[in-house]
Amino acid sequence: MGEPGPALVERIKAKNETWVEDYKNALDELTIVTPRDAISELCAFLKSDCGYDLLADLCGADRGPEEDPRFEVNYHLFSTQHFGRLRVKVLLNEDDPHVRSVENVWRTANWHERETFDLFGVIFDGHSDLRRILLPSDFDGHALRKDYPLRGYEPYSMN
Amino acid sequence: MSTAVNNIPGKFEILDQSLESQMTLSMGPQHPSTHGVLRLDLRLDGELVVKAIPDIGYLHTGMEKLFEYKKYQQGIVITDRMDYLNPLGNNLAYVMAAEKLLQLEIPERAQVIRVLFCELQRIASHLVWLGTHCLDIGAMSVFFFCFRHREKILNLIEAASGGRMTPSYFRIGGLMMDLPAGFDRRCKQFLDDFPEALNTFDTLVTGNTIWQSRTMNIGVISREDAIDWGLTGPCLRGSGVEVDIRRANPYTGYETYDFEIPTENGCDVWARFKVRMREMTESYKIVRQALDRLKPGPIKADAPKVVLPDRDDMRKHMDALIHHFLIVAEGFNIPEGEVYMPIEGSKGELGVYMKSNGGPKPDRVHFRGPSFVNLQSLPVMSEGEMIADVVAIIGSLDIVLGEIDR
């Protein structure tokens, strides 16, 4: 299953020390936390040099309104060559939920990022077409945020 | 609330109406060949597709939000309703994510039954795909043959779980209940009939020259593009990439089964069709092996705080009754952590990202639906093709809108 965790982390650190803020290896899954400005370069490096050529998933998560940083964006990478898996995580503040888009690395990120924007309100800078995808374009709020009520603010009407 | 949405163009402003020789056609959402409520904005030049923009979200029901308000074991029934052609696959991915967080050991018999049903479900899902794909292209009769055999599989699933389309058969820590008496015999009966059915499909469709000319060199996506667009499952293997998660990151003991990974290099609708046809044979082989391995034994993990006790135990032991009450009333806590559990669903990589904060309800559950990602590549495949071929391409992607919109 690809390179063992610490070896890969060392390799990334050798390339650029600032790319790895933190990492942990839990439940056989390696998670690398990276600063939001570095995500695009880190992904490009992982794709070209480490064989992680397929972006399996990209999803957001909300830790709750009282937490800081509040939002997480998780990138789940997969390699079609050595079948390894890797999670890259970016942490974002509530006031400034901006992160670089990875659409220039994998085009499949387009819809994933639109979904994350739609449901969490995370803004992906450099995205070619960042608009809502699952919810209607005139929807108020971001439905998967913890402070968004389960039944919405008011009944939604399609008019 | 956030007003960041305001400066983003509306869905309908993307296609500009300036060129006179071209027209915009809105295909769907109520269109029999879009397999649900999918809408396509097609920019046409005559019958040629210049641009295609899929528009989804008509079926969005906020399932990922709902998970956060349900206990772990209550979430299983929600997963049934996502990819409704592959509910057992969804059950498995969800259940295994929770089991990985709990570090549960699943008994051998439960593992074998899980494999058996997942492969039966894969055949059933592929039969629906084949039937509707042929219906889209214009071959009516195949549909009836496929659904007749799918019905037999649904009867098997119903016999075990009580539900045809929404089984919720896999539970955290094992299975809902053991197989009913005589299941072996019924399953063998189905398996004995199935190779002949596959032959029928082959003679009906594969050798048909009209079918071949409708599918060959249509909807081409190259190997590099397929990886770039994140295609998985039969769509990726139809572009010549030999990746199957059952082999790449094995789960529930798939590494011990003998099966091949069908791969085609055609990159077109025909290649994806061939891959799925061959996959049905491979699934048939796995079901046979799983049936042979069925040995009596426990079907639930030894974890009384997580797994519901047997009825019989509840009548005899007080602690079993207490555990039952606590699991139903309060649920069980899952240690803090996060996992991404990928399985090979019938349509591609079905991944579940589950994050727990230590309580009885998940902090976040995200489903990486293969249909969602595969549909995204529709413009790449259909731009430059004829409008009639768009229907063939949608069919070859094998999408389920329940999973895309969640």
Number of helical elements of chain B: 17
CATH homologous superfamily (4th level) name of chain A = NADH:ubiquinone oxidoreductase Nqo5 subunit
Alpha-beta content class of chain A: alpha/beta
Any idea of the CATH topology of the largest domain in chain B?
Cytochrome-c3 Hydrogenase, chain B
Describe the structure using short key phrases:
heterodimer; A: alpha/beta; Beta Polymerase, domain 2; 5-stranded mixed β-sheet; 21% helix; globular; B: 406 residues; mainly alpha; Cytochrome-c3 Hydrogenase, chain B; 2 domains; 3-stranded antiparallel β-sheet; 17 helices; 48% helix
Layout: helices, strands, pairs:
The complex is a heterodimer of chains A (159) and B (406).
Chain A (H helix, E strand, L loop, with lengths): L4 H11 L6 E5 L2 E5 L5 H11 L4 E9 L8 E8 L6 E8 L5 E3 L8 H12 L2 E3 L34
Parallel strand pairs in A: 2-5, 6-7
Antiparallel strand pairs in A: 1-2, 3-4, 4-5
Chain B lengths: L21 E6 L11 E7 L2 E8 L7 H5 L7 H6 L6 H16 L5 H30 L2 H22 L8 E2 L2 E2 L7 H24 L2 H7 L7 H6 L5 H4 L7 H4 L20 H25 L17 H6 L1 H13 L6 E8 L4 E8 L7 E5 L1 H7 L1 H5 L4 H11 L3 H5 L1
Antiparallel strand pairs in B: 1-2, 2-3, 4-5, 6-7, 7-8
Helix pairs in contact in B: 3-4, 4-5, 4-11, 4-16, 5-6, 6-11, 11-16
